[in-house]
Prior knowledge:
By secondary structure, the protein is α/β, with parallel strands linked by helices. The protein is built from 11 helices and 17 strands. It folds into 2 domains: about 10-115 and about 305-335, ornithine cyclodeaminase, domain 1 (2-Layer Sandwich), CATH 3.30.1780; about 135-305, Rossmann fold (3-Layer(aba) Sandwich), CATH 3.40.50. It has helices at about 15-25, 30-45, 115-135, 150-160, 175-180, 195-200, 245-250, 260-265, 280-285, 305-320, 340-350, and strands at about 10-15, 55-60, 65-70, 75-80, 95-100, 110-115, 140-145, 165-170, 190, 205-210, 215-220, 230, 240-245, 250-255, 275-280, 295-300, 325-330.
Amino acid sequence: MKNPNANLSLVPFVSVENMMRLILEIGVETCMVEIAAYIEEDFRRWPSFDKTPRVASHSDEGVIELMPTSDGIDYGFKYVNGHPKNMKDGLQTVTAFGLLASVDTGYPVLLTEMTILTAMRTAATSAVATKYLARKGSKTLAMVGNGAQSEFQALALKSICGIDNLRLYDTDPAATEKCIANLQAAGMSITACTTPEEAVIGADVITTCTADKQYATILTDNMVGAGVHINAIGGDCPGKTELHKDILLRSDIFVEYPPQTRIEGEIQQLEDDHPVRELWQVMTGASDGRTDDRQITLFDGVGFAIEDFSALRWLRDKIAKTDKWQHLDMIADPDDPRDLFGMIERERARSN
């Protein structure tokens, strides 16, 4: 297959159609296992990245964000929105696209849809956190919120952490039915529950993944027993949470990037000096993770740019071996770099 980066003025682009074709060729679970490996690799070299909280533009309807980072060799960013109201209009709550560029030249080397890719990287990140923080031998996942992310979350935890028992709850029973139908061939035991309290019974891992932009209480303190690991991934902007504050006070809390999570995550409910640990430090052994089977561990996952960077790196490597991309003529490339205007004039002459 031709190298997608052979001509620097033509940028490889992965459309939604090609992303789906690539995933189906590789397999959804395999994709997330591979993305998780890229995430672990990048988290282990966390200090080498430029890091900044995402740049957010908030409105009453939702949020639009830019998420940039660089390791000094490549630069990546993602554009992403979060508009819970979209669902009633038949639109996606979250959409995204992303770009990877060379730090050496500043030229983009990949442009891609990231609505689907973000779903996979978010699930892969949850699975990585669960791998390091949940009790060994955890088998049962309670998924509270059965929307667009739920199937990816379940499959990532199945393939990476060995979860094989799934308990589902959503305020909309149709969402649960959709999730069950989509996972019927996944090889998991699946139970539809009528309340969140029912869903968490016997769960080793609880994942909350709801969309409403509000201070919500999806889990109350009495629902969380000793030894549980929680992935709280629905809270991702100021004014949006899912857990009762008392759960946070009983838990050992792990985050991606504290300056961002304190603004957007569950810990926005706590004092600024409340202790948290960074997930990358657990991976490298610089910080303890789970230390006993009765400990409650909480991954307050809001999504960070390095995870998108990892997913973009994975995609760049994958498309180099396939035909699942096309070139976009995005970069003006005059014969003389100083003569951009002349390039326009020469096009006039050719057109005439």
